[in-house]
Amino acid sequence: MDIAHLGHVEMLTDRFDATLDFFTRVYGLTVSGRDATSAYLRAWDDYEFHTLKLTAAETTGVGHIGYRAASAEALDRRVAAIEASDFVAHGWVDGDQGHGPAFRFEDPFGHLFEIYWETEKYRHGEADRPALKNNASRFHATGACPRRLDHLNLLAQDVTEFRRFMETCLGSRVTELIQLDNGRLGGCWFTVNNKGYDLACTEEHGGGRGRLHHVTYAADQREDILRAADIFLENGVHIETGPHKHAIQNTFFLYVWEPAGNRVEIANAGARLILDPDWEPVVWTEADRKKGQAWGLKTIETFHTHGTPPVPGTGA
Amino acid sequence: MDIAHLGHVEMLTDRFDATLDFFTRVYGLTVSGRDATSAYLRAWDDYEFHTLKLTAAETTGVGHIGYRAASAEALDRRVAAIEASDFVAHGWVDGDQGHGPAFRFEDPFGHLFEIYWETEKYRHGEADRPALKNNASRFHATGACPRRLDHLNLLAQDVTEFRRFMETCLGSRVTELIQLDNGRLGGCWFTVNNKGYDLACTEEHGGGRGRLHHVTYAADQREDILRAADIFLENGVHIETGPHKHAIQNTFFLYVWEPAGNRVEIANAGARLILDPDWEPVVWTEADRKKGQAWGLKTIETFHTHGTPPVPGTGA
Amino acid sequence: MDIAHLGHVEMLTDRFDATLDFFTRVYGLTVSGRDATSAYLRAWDDYEFHTLKLTAAETTGVGHIGYRAASAEALDRRVAAIEASDFVAHGWVDGDQGHGPAFRFEDPFGHLFEIYWETEKYRHGEADRPALKNNASRFHATGACPRRLDHLNLLAQDVTEFRRFMETCLGSRVTELIQLDNGRLGGCWFTVNNKGYDLACTEEHGGGRGRLHHVTYAADQREDILRAADIFLENGVHIETGPHKHAIQNTFFLYVWEPAGNRVEIANAGARLILDPDWEPVVWTEADRKKGQAWGLKTIETFHTHGTPPVPGTGA
Amino acid sequence: MDIAHLGHVEMLTDRFDATLDFFTRVYGLTVSGRDATSAYLRAWDDYEFHTLKLTAAETTGVGHIGYRAASAEALDRRVAAIEASDFVAHGWVDGDQGHGPAFRFEDPFGHLFEIYWETEKYRHGEADRPALKNNASRFHATGACPRRLDHLNLLAQDVTEFRRFMETCLGSRVTELIQLDNGRLGGCWFTVNNKGYDLACTEEHGGGRGRLHHVTYAADQREDILRAADIFLENGVHIETGPHKHAIQNTFFLYVWEPAGNRVEIANAGARLILDPDWEPVVWTEADRKKGQAWGLKTIETFHTHGTPPVPGTGA
According to the lineage, what is the superkingdom (chains A, B, C, D) (predicted)? Predict the structure, then answer.
């Protein structure tokens, strides 16, 4: 695969201080850097400088999504593929805190992507030196304290078209999908490596454009998710749904809304990986979906409608 | 990477019935097939026909190690690389229950490897149909019940040479290693994908040849390892060491000896993956190792000496 | 306290074989004894002969509830207190498999209770000898495999009157309660020892009489509850709600319906105990209850209506 | 029982600031009060003002041990029993921050006890108001963050005599004991309620007097213990042994030394309780003990010798 992994997500917030407080004190990320409008955050074992760029903005949602290439040559191959496609290429940008030149492009639904090779690996200081040298930094045990960035979920009006975008531009493969009775795709789970997914796309029902459904970090154990639920509860964070287990991907999940309204998940996948090189996508029908989540939980209504930024006048 | 993942391990036993009883009733694998001298076993979410081939023999240890290629073309590339090397190539065999033609070759220390592309994916029946269609078969909850094959550990007189073998023949990368004060490698952890390791090699101290240190399956949660400890205890299985956490790879481990003496591990890696495409191997010195395992447990003496088959007259 | 602990619950089933299969193969109890119409079951660390008496009947629900006294003298004191009260005393019965003479009495809502002192402690055989001699029998690891009986929940038209019954007859203390806006008690949690509760009573909304809401066994860890959810899922058991955490008593819960329709819970209370000898009952208002369970789960409708036996023509 | 539960332990330290930092920042207790020489600490769900009194002193060890009576009358009964005995009674003291008048007495090995009835229940403020009103204060998620005080372990030259002291003065019952081949008791586990033990006494091997072996708080889940191990590791705390499972009492344990050298445990007992009112003490022989801990861990040498205060010139 030319693309190695999801690198970072830029999240927009119109309540910057509150959102930053949530992500650091409650969710348990740490700040690597700051600039005039953004904070660069990472989980304790994320190897790069940052995996979440939090940017003050007039609204919420996703700024851009960064994927790291597997090599300089692989990056070139991907750029060529994108340029040869009918998708919108924005071209090279100089990079950012934490990584070098990045090639930017856009899906047909208004989400901005970038791919890059050169990165700044996180260098811990004395204060966050890990006890075990194979960890990127100290397990600081603050807040929910997930280990690493896991995935994000975007909304698109046409998931089939979004799938073509992901396959063409990133070379992603599809591991699971929802096949609606009307013939459309209801959702699609993509990966560029052995994780079950690094990006999911589900159908936009709120009339929005370029919207974010959620961003997720991975915790080591399901118990970490249960403990996180108590931490969110004690800190007045809106718990939307969970902890419970998704039928799709078997993910043990917990969804909350950070103070500005962006949905954030903390999840655990157990030992599940997609090792099979010719894995056939798992197809979930509407009939399957009527069973609810793995253990029968009915999906909460806001999960189908709430995205960021909100769509004026719709409640979505 | 040309090689997708570790596919299966053939384990030899001179107590076939007892070993099979251990692996099915206590450890929690299931039987996919039998022939005159072997049973083919898998964990409930292993996608292939088998991941453990248990073979009746006059002694214990490892029969052969199978890796699945990422494609037919990738298999050809690997075969060419092996044939171009100075390592011993045995050539093609017809395959076995569960997979197609395999190319066999051997490391300088007597371990037999094979690589293959064509495989038989496990097809569950009515009795082991999973409730969730993205699982390979039903979570049967029998015994320790790990999810999938994880890795194996071999012993070699010269780990540096073994490393050259793995890099040359499988294209494996090294994620962590032990650098001894005498300049030799004490151990090396290899992977062909995003797992931290699928094969480890540590120095042979017992004078044996072609020996196995252990085979490991992955459980979803650390709690599964603790629960497995009680299951082993109640079934009279020899617990050698653990549960505890390895400093190397952060693996939460538990080692037992199956009735014939082969060491078997059940382990959990949490959410740890090697996503970085230019990961630098983590180097552990003898000084590092003196600290014991992650939480200070001193490594038990047999862990340094016991391998299979035993070396006559040495107690190893 | 004169009463030491909840001893056993007799559950009625009109699908005896299916219910027994559920409790042994899936839920993980074992059979200590049988007679013409009943099976006597226990969890692996229950110290008495049985904690669940399963009885073939024309309907479902609870047969009787047994509490063990703290001594022979304490039993006499309780019998005197019951006889001196205005509650219905049935008098002495000879006992049953597993215990000696019992004094029977009845709450005003049709639930039959008994108290006894002489008991038959479970004596394991060779096959279920525990590895650790302080366990009552072997941790068999079959099914959900809870450790011990925990509590039951009854339905009553008048919880305040039921509370008077429990305080008068058993000397129970109230640890938590629901105070409805209309002045009635919505629910009451009782204990005779350091557990948070051994019996709960909630308001009957279905028009039934003498009904059971659920019976619960305790598992050692929350992970056991999550694992049980997968076991129930794979075995086609109806999962009603959970896993989630109750606000009341902090219990981590999972509710299922056994094949005949009786609601059964498996739960974990963590390290929570009521050690305070002058504990003041925690009062939950309707406003409190509107927040849902601890992490926000809305209580499923059937939880308010379903009890056993069903009330003809009501769907309850 | 006249005595309700272990109330508090006074621990001495000759490194007050470092010990206090350990208990608050790393172990996860909070400070309720201070005076000239002591800090009063509690776990987040301890219902009393404090459960650990940390006192600056010239050495380490235990200052005194407080048990709360079940009522004012029960306290009087116990005082009468102690005064009628041949054990040393010091008489009434005025009380302390957190509780009222206490009657003090001493075991033959130099440990000071007190019993009291009047207590100050902890009153949370706005900052530590719990989300769930049945918790004593907010789950703050700082450090290892156990739920409540569990037990302590003292050393005595004659465990049989210590047993007589506990039975006579506190009315404790013995749940488990170690019977040495030489006829002496090697250890004895005592309880006044349904917990498996609130105080253990093991034989003094170091020649000390009035020494402490360890103090323990209870965490809700075994996963909390594993997580605590990482927290101790990252904070440079000396981990002596664990996590592992004791054969005796089935406790899942982890032992560390706080900066001044007092041994501190964090433990989980699962759902295990002693509900049986006529429980027979479990007897462990030397042969039993040779098997090591539950899963085979050999007991580390310092566990047999290290106590506080240290014994000059012995290394104990």
Answer: Bacteria
Show the DSSP H helices in chain B as ranges.
Answer: 16-21, 72-83, 159-165, 222-234, 286-289, 301-305
What is residue A313's predicted lDDT score, i.e. its pLDDT? 78
Note the pLDDT tens digit of each residue in D90-134: 999 999 999 999 999 999 999 999 999 999 999 999 999 999 999
Query: Cα dist. C125→A37, A42, C35, C40 in Å?
Result: 71, 56, 20, 16
CB B99 within 8 A of CB B4: no
Class of domain B3-121+146-305: alpha beta
Q: Looking at domain D3-135+144-305, which of 3.40.30.10, 3.30.420.10, 3.10.180.10, 3.40.980.10 is its CATH number?
A: 3.10.180.10
- φ, ψ of residue A4 to 5 degrees: the values are -85, -45
Q: Is the peptide bond before C108 cis (omega within 30 degrees of 0)?
A: no
Q: Are residues A12 and A38 in contact, defined by beta-carbon separation less than 8 angstroms?
A: no
A268 in reach of chain C (CB within 8 A): no
pLDDT in tens, D70-97: 999 999 999 999 999 999 999 999 999 9
Q: Which residue type is seen at A233? A: L
Q: Which CATH number fits domain A3-123+146-305: 3.30.360.10, 3.30.160.100, 3.40.50.2000, 3.10.180.10?
A: 3.10.180.10
CB C246 within 8 A of CB C289: no
How is chain B split into domains, by residue range?
3-121+146-305
Which residues in B lie closer than 8 A to residue D252 (C-beta atoms)?
Answer: 226
Kind of pairing, strands C199-203 and C112-116? unpaired
Partner B contacted by C72 (CB < 8 A): no
Closest residue, chain A, to B219 (C-alpha): A271
Long-range contacts at D183-187 (CB < 8 A, ≥ 24 apart)? D184/D158, D184/D159, D184/D160, D185/D159, D185/D160, D186/D159, D186/D286, D186/D289, D187/D159, D187/D248
Q: Are C52 and C149 in contact (CB under 8 A)?
A: yes
Best CA proximity match to A12, nearest among A67, A52, A68, A66: A52
Residue of D nearest to C6 (CA): D275
Find out if CATH 3.30.70.890 is the number for domain C3-123+144-305: no
Q: Given its phi and psi angles, is residue D196 left (phi above 0), alpha (psi -120 to 50 degrees) or beta? A: alpha
Q: Is D265 on the interface with C (CB under 8 A)?
A: no
For an interface test with C, the pick among D77, D129, D275 (most C C-beta atoms closer than 10 Å) comes out as D275
Question: Cβ(B89)–Cβ(B81) under 8 Å?
Answer: no
At residue C189's C-alpha, the angle toward residues C187 and C195, to 5°, is 165
Q: How would you class A221 by CB atoms within 10 Å of its CB: exposed for 0-12, middle for 13-18, buried for 19 or more?
A: buried
Residues of D with Cβ-Cβ distance to C273 under 8 angstroms: 148, 194-195
Task: Respond yes or no on whether ipTM tops 0.95.
Answer: yes
Select from D223, D231, D239 the residue whose CB has the most chain A CBs within 10 Å, as the one to mutate to test that interface: D223
* pLDDT, tens only, D239-297: 999 999 999 999 999 999 999 999 999 999 999 999 999 999 999 999 999 999 999 99
> Which residue of B lies nearest to D232 if distances are taken between CA atoms?
B295
D141 and A223 within 8 Å at the Cβ level: the answer is no
B132 part of contact set with chain A, CB < 8 Å: yes
Q: Which pair of tokens denotes residue D138? A: 């907010």
pLDDT bracket for residue B75 (50, 70, 90): very high
**CB of C141 within 8 Å of any CB in chain B?**
yes
Q: How far is CA B108 from the centre of its chain?
A: 19
- Does B120 reach chain A within 8 Å, measured CB to CB? no
